[in-house]
From TrEMBL, chain A:
<feature type="transmembrane region" description="Helical">
    <location>
        <begin position="77"/>
        <end position="104"/>
    </location>
</feature>
<dbReference type="GO" id="GO:0016020">
    <property type="term" value="C:membrane"/>
</dbReference>
<dbReference type="InterPro" id="IPR010227">
    <property type="entry name" value="NADH_Q_OxRdtase_chainM/4"/>
</dbReference>
<dbReference type="GO" id="GO:0003954">
    <property type="term" value="F:NADH dehydrogenase activity"/>
</dbReference>
<keyword id="KW-1133">Transmembrane helix</keyword>
<feature type="region of interest" description="Disordered">
    <location>
        <begin position="446"/>
        <end position="477"/>
    </location>
</feature>
<dbReference type="InterPro" id="IPR001750">
    <property type="entry name" value="ND/Mrp_TM"/>
</dbReference>
<feature type="transmembrane region" description="Helical">
    <location>
        <begin position="218"/>
        <end position="240"/>
    </location>
</feature>
<keyword id="KW-0812">Transmembrane</keyword>
UniProtKB/TrEMBL annotation, chain B:
<dbReference type="GO" id="GO:0005886">
    <property type="term" value="C:plasma membrane"/>
</dbReference>
<feature type="transmembrane region" description="Helical">
    <location>
        <begin position="360"/>
        <end position="380"/>
    </location>
</feature>
<feature type="transmembrane region" description="Helical">
    <location>
        <begin position="439"/>
        <end position="465"/>
    </location>
</feature>
<keyword id="KW-1133">Transmembrane helix</keyword>
<comment type="similarity">
    <text>Belongs to the complex I subunit 2 family.</text>
</comment>
<dbReference type="GO" id="GO:0048038">
    <property type="term" value="F:quinone binding"/>
</dbReference>
<keyword id="KW-0812">Transmembrane</keyword>
<keyword id="KW-0472">Membrane</keyword>
<feature type="transmembrane region" description="Helical">
    <location>
        <begin position="40"/>
        <end position="58"/>
    </location>
</feature>
Length: 555, 515
């Protein structure tokens, strides 16, 4: 049974599913989504089976398969997972079916067919599995770039009003990063050819070669830029709010939940083990970006009037925490960071989903267009609250464990950065609770009000809803809506509470939030050996204390 | 007593096939009755090119200098001859398409009739079709195949003219927008004549410096003087200018957008694919066989030209609103990428780097993709012929999902997205360049790729994410020839992207010059 090629099947099943969905005749939308759900559930099952087949205490890479692909380049179609990749596969397995159900009733814009949506979604799933399962740097790069195409079409064909702009920006940002990485990938190959006599892209072989520190820095930067754009760290982040806001909700969940994790995954899998000296030398600069991201993105999140943009900014802040945990070089912090990657996918995914449910009801993305929803839709508000609390890492939710691990693990080596990062927690509480308070509590207002002829405010709100402004321009509109809100008080708020389908989306996510909040140990057991191996590659002490602590203290 | 030079007819078989077909074509034009000419000409031209393709494939592994030392039949020559013959056959199929244009052909019935004259209007609706274009094109293909095998500068010059003259002519044969087409032909001819003159002058200087036009003799002479002779360096520079012009490398690219736009689209496809292959074949042979030992005299020059070409192609491509012009600038940028591969052939006499094989693979992949892209252009039409303005392509995916998907595939390949042939080619040439220490060049190339990706993406955005225009173009239903071309090019673009191993291997094994 252990010989079964789980990983290959996990890549092939959704790819074949995508082709099947795309090949369905026009008008079979119902079959298409059922097929999509079926395929994504099969992948979830495969992910679970893979986890069972994986031996946490065993070798670093397991379930490996390798077939020669392009012999002239020394490229193998090599797959394998360590604990870190495995938990990401689990995350994909969970998120995709949830996204499928959440998008069940989405209507395409224009005369497009939802078949294309399901097909691209499944293709994206296949590529995402591939990117985490690849153990050949070239193969990783191929999936890394190929992943852009389905996401590009998801945003561009099914997104919001500014979807063309967002799709192109997403593609170009990622492509620039990817191409810089390509230079580094080729450079790595050439270095390996000089060291080993024969060029290779195999991760295990590359890990063992000694690279000249100057070259290491260049190669590190090549990979780093690609991952920092993907993750995204602060100066490279501007594409995410646009893409996150314009993508359809399902796409947005996968975008921040999984796609962006490729960046942080890349730091752990490629930057640290392959370029240990460069990683150690450049870590302070990365930490500056990480902490700046935590604070800056949190401040920006507070200022957003568009809910999807707000959630996107919270993600950028969270990615700062993840980067902090990774570049603190302790097993504790990095384990926390990997756990954070999973938890962020669940918590922010849930937040995006619930925001999407709210937007589906009101038709507007602006915070100021909602108010007092909790009175009419307690379930929706409850799920919203849980998602928000998970996002701000309240104890008892999944994110708390990981954030705590990151901070406690980083403090011994990087006290200053860690202290600054904790300020981000306070800011997180602010942006989440303000969002929750404005939309769910307070007087009923905004687009969900029954149109009351005697109040002009409802009409204003509805007008905003028809053309949701994004960016800073929207702030003014939101403020006006807030001011006029009391005038609308006599009107009645009418909100449907969660439907059975939406409950089916939210319930498993809420369950995971709470389950991982109380019992994260199984995941930690999976992650920790892989992180310890990475830490030993990078030359940090796996026990949790960096041997360089005194030196680090001086810079 | 004059001895006839030794000629290996077997080694020349591909050339004989193609030139033979061209001569037969001329006879057909003269003697066959008009109503059977078209099918006969198409058949003759296809038999010639496919025969050339098959015979050159049979010659794989051949390494010899023949025809009294004037021709080198070696790996690169045979590989590129096969590429040119194959791409030429595909282009001829596009020429032969009769079901797209209501006038049954993309070529003017009688080129000598002044545009807009009563006779011209009369011919517009006449069922008569142009058939001289087939032997002309076959001659051009023969010239290109000779060009890549030329082992001395004079043969190279003759081949240059044999391939150029028919091209000047067929650029001016468009059935629609005739004046634009004629302007393109004149422009191409004038600038091409200049380039030929540069080449000829360079040839004379090199002959003056070394006393020979044979590439191997030039190599020895330049080695003995350590490449220092002023005449030799000047001659080299002029030769390079002449060849770069044909390869449409910036800053010698000024003709490219106009000619690509004005020429009939099948001819543009032919030029974009085959001329590029031929010109790069000659560049590689000239630089490495004749001047391989004085590499440092030309390396900085080519390095600079590569950067200029990539940047000019990518940046100016951004501002284009006509698809044919956009593809022209794309071709200029790709010429720059190809030059990175040329530089990656490696220092030293025999070239240790993988650049030669990589460049040849790139030429094949790029040629197939670009013919496919132009073939799609011939499908999208409005009342005046092809609708090549960008805005006319808005919402194409809604009108014809298949056409849009095929075009999107070609554009992604041109942008170099993994799992397409474009990526494999780029990877191969960039690897060769980095291997040779030219990593700054590769970084520039990658940034240029990112810029160029923007204009390819813009077309995809238009096709997929925009609402279709009310009076948009119609999508023609292609006849058998175009369908065949599209099937071959789509398959090749995907196969060379997903499982390129076999072809890369062939290119790599072919990558050794003789001489």
């Amino acid at each position: 049974m252990s010989d079964f090629p789980y990983l290959l099947t996990m890549i092939a099943v959704p790819a074949v599913g995508a082709a099947a969905v795309a090949a369905l005749p026009r008008g079979r939308e119902g079959t298409a989504r059922q097929l999509a759900l079926g395929v994504s559930l099969v992948v979830l099952l495969l992910a679970v089976l893979t986890t069972i087949a994986f031996d946490a205490g065993g070798e670093r890479f397991q379930l490996t398969t390798s077939v020669s692909w392009i012999p002239d380049f020394g490229v193998d179609f090599a797959l394998g997972v360590d604990g870190i990749a495995l938990v990401m596969l689990l995350l994909i397995g969970v998120l995709v079916p949830v996204v499928v159900v959440a998008s069940w009733r989405d209507e395409p814009t224009g005369r497009r067919s939802m078949r294309a949506f399901w097909a691209w979604l499944l293709l994206l799933e296949s590529m995402m599995v591939g990117v985490f399962a690849a153990t050949d740097v070239f193969l990783f790069y191929v999936f890394f770039e190929a992943m852009l195409v389905p996401m590009y079409f998801l945003i561009g064909s099914f997104g919001g009003p500014r979807r063309q702009y967002a799709a192109v920006k997403f593609f170009l940002y990622s492509l620039v990063g990817g191409l810089v990485m390509l230079a580094a990938v080729i450079g790595l190959y050439v270095v390996s050819a000089n060291e080993l006599g024969e060029g290779t892209f195999a991760f295990d072989a590359l890990r063992q070669i000694e690279i000249d520190p100057g070259v290491q820095k260049l190669l590190f930067l090549g990979f780093f830029v690609a991952f920092a754009i993907k993750a995204p760290l602060v100066p490279f982040h501007t594409w995410l709010p646009d893409s996150g806001a314009e993508a359809p909700i399902g796409g947005a969940v996968l975008l921040v939940g999984v796609l962006d994790k490729v960046g942080t995954f890349g730091f752990i899998r490629y930057c640290l083990p392959l370029f240990p000296d460069a990683s150690r030398d450049l870590a302070p600069y990365v930490l500056v970006l990480a902490v700046a991201g935590i604070l800056y993105a949190a401040l920006l999140a507070m200022g957003q009037s568009d809910m999807k943009r707000l959630v996107s900014y919270t993600s950028i802040a969270h990615f700062g925490f993840i980067a902090l945990g990774i570049f603190a070089f302790t097993t504790e912090a990095t384990t926390g960071a990997v756990l954070y990657m999973v938890n962020h996918g669940i918590a922010t995914g849930l937040l995006f989903l619930v925001v999407g449910m709210l937007i589906a009801r009101g038709g507007s993305r602006l915070v100021g267009d909602y108010g007092g929803v909790a009175t009419q839709a307690p379930l929706l508000a409850g799920v919203f609250l849980i998602a928000g609390l998970a996002s701000l890492a309240l104890p008892g939710t999944n994110s708390f464990v990981s954030e705590f691990l990151v901070l406690i693990g980083s403090f011994p080596t990087r006290p200053v950065f860690t202290v600054l990062a904790t300020v981000g927690i306070v800011l997180a509480a602010l942006y989440v609770l303000l969002l929750y308070q404005r939309t769910m509590h307070g007087p009923p207002r905004g687009v969900l009000l029954e149109p009351a002829p005697e109040t002009p405010a409802g009409a204003t709100g509805a007008g905003d809803g028809a053309t949701p402004a994004t960016g800073s321009g929207g702030g003014a509109t939101a403020a006006t809506a807030t001011l006029e809100a009391p005038a609308a008080a006599p009107a009645r708020l009418r909100v449907r509470d969660l439907s059975r389908r939406e409950l089916a989306v939210a319930a498993p996510m809420v369950a995971i939030v709470i389950a991982l909040g109380f019992y994260p140990q199984p995941l930690i057991d999976l992650i920790e050996p892989a992180v310890a191996a990475t830490m030993s590659d990078v030359g940090a002490d796996p026990a949790g204390v960096s041997p360089q602590a005194p030196v680090e203290g001086t810079d | 007593m004059i001895e006839a030079p030794a000629i290996s007819l077997a080694a020349l078989a591909p050339l004989l096939f193609v030139f033979g077909a061209a001569c037969v074509g001329v006879l057909v034009e003269a003697f066959a009755p008009r109503d059977v000419r078209h099918p006969v000409q198409v058949a003759v031209a296809l038999v010639g090119t496919i025969g050339g393709l098959v015979t050159s494939l049979l010659l794989a592994g051949e390494r010899q200098v023949t025809a009294g030392g004037a021709l080198a039949v070696d790996g690169p020559a045979v590989f590129l001859q096969a590429t040119i013959a194959g791409l030429g056959a595909l282009s001829l199929l596009l020429f032969a398409e009769r079901s797209l244009d209501p006038a049954r052909s993309a070529f003017v019935a009688a080129a000598a009739v002044p545009a807009g004259s009563p006779r011209d209007r009369e011919l517009m609706t006449a069922p008569r079709v142009q058939t001289e274009v087939y032997p002309l094109t076959t001659f051009a293909i023969g010239g290109m195949m000779l060009f890549v095998a030329a082992n001395d500068l004079l043969v190279m010059f003759v081949a240059l003219e044999v391939l150029s003259l028919p091209l000047y002519l067929i650029s001016g044969l468009a059935r629609r927008r005739r004046l634009l087409s004629q302007e393109a032909a004149v422009k191409y001819f004038l600038l091409g004549a200049f380039a030929s003159a540069f080449f000829l002058y360079g040839l004379a200087l090199v002959y003056g410096a070394t006393g020979s036009i044979r590439l191997s003799v030039i190599r020895e002479a330049s080695a003995s003087e350590a490449g220092g002779g002023v005449l030799l360096v000047l001659g080299l520079a002029l030769l390079v200018v002449g060849l770069m012009f044909k390869a449409s490398v910036a800053p010698f690219h000024a003709w490219t957008p106009d000619v690509y736009q004005g020429a009939p689209t099948p001819v543009t496809a032919f030029m974009a694919a085959c001329t590029k292959v031929a010109a790069f074949g000659a560049i590689l042979r000239l630089l490495y066989v004749a001047f391989g030992t004085s590499e440092w005299t030309w390396r900085p020059l080519v390095y600079g030209i590569a950067i200029v070409s990539m940047v000019v192609g990518a940046v100016l491509g951004l501002t284009q609103t006509d698809l044919k012009r956009m593809l022209a600038y794309s071709s200029i940028a790709h010429a720059g990428f190809l030059l990175t591969g040329v530089l990656g052939y490696g220092s030293g006499a025999d070239g240790t780097g993988s650049g030669l094989g990589a460049t040849m693979f790139y030429l094949l992949a790029y040629g197939l993709t670009t013919i496919g892209a132009f073939a799609v252009l011939t499908l999208v039409r409005d009342g005046d012929g092809e609708a090549t303005h960008l805005s006319q392509w808005a919402g194409l995916a809604r009108r014809s999902p298949l056409t849009a998907a095929v075009m999107a595939l070609f554009l992604l390949a041109l942008a170099g997205i993994p799992l397409t042939s474009g990526f494999t080619g780029k990877f191969a040439v960039f690897r060769a360049a980095i291997d040779d220490g030219a990593w700054p060049l590769v970084v520039v190339a990658l940034l240029a790729s990112a810029v160029a990706a923007f204009f390819y993406l813009r077309v995809i955005v238009l096709m997929y994410f925009s609402e279709p225009a009310v009076d948009g173009p119609t999508i023609g239903v292609p006849g058998l020839p175009t369908t065949l071309v599209l099937a071959v090019t789509v398959t090749a673009t995907v196969v060379l992207g997903v499982v390129p191993g076999a072809v890369l291997d062939i290119a790599e094994r072919a990558a050794r010059f003789v001489g």
